[in-house]
Design goal:
By secondary structure, this protein is mainly α. The chain contains 5 helices and 3 strands. 11% of the residues are buried.
Length: 170
């Protein structure tokens, strides 16, 4: 079952609490479309800095392979591995971009679909948000002193195994 991380947007002007509609759920796992169409996927998800880094790294690796005289099979394999890396790390790249934009990670939730994960998160988040708005009662104070229970020595019959008897020398 997929795991989603939940990201809370920064507050806008005139907002006292974040709008739940703006929360973003990022799934952990492999992103097929990021694997297949990495540049387009990066642009659709507004990962501008990641897109620029992708283009630079792809161009540098392509130029290095060209000047090294690599065969077409090697170029294809390297391109496939880069696409696979982007597909595997797409969720991490989105989380990194959100954290750069000052979004807070508020939790993780498990759900078969994103909609079920959203329902599960907001069902648990509503009571928690209400609890945070009410003043918290202080925790009960610990007892003033700790009294250890009296120590009793075990009888000789409680010793088992290859250990020597307490009274007998070795």
């Amino acid at each position: 079952m997929p795991t989603y991380t939940v990201h809370e947007p920064p507050l806008r002007k005139n907002e006292s609490a974040p709008d739940p509609v703006r929360f973003v759920f990022v799934r952990d796992g492999f992103y097929f479309w990021a694997f297949l169409l990495a540049p387009l996927w990066l642009l659709v998800h507004r990962l501008w800095l990641v897109f620029i880094l992708y283009l630079i790294i792809d161009a540098l690796i392509g130029a290095g392979l060209y000047f090294a005289g690599a065969s077409a099979a090697v170029k294809f394999a390297v391109g496939f591995l880069i696409a696979l890396l982007v597909g595997l790390e797409a969720g991490t790249l989105r989380r990194w971009t959100l954290s750069r934009r000052k979004w807070k990670t508020v939790g993780a939730v498990i759900g078969e679909t994103r909609e079920l994960a959203e329902r599960r998160f907001f069902a648990a988040w509503q009571p928690r948000a209400a609890d945070e708005s009410t003043p918290a009662t202080p925790p009960p104070s610990p007892p003033a002193t700790y009294v250890a229970p009296p120590r009793r020595d075990p009888p000789a019959s409680d010793i088992i195994g290859l250990f020597p008897e307490p009274e007998n020398p070795r």
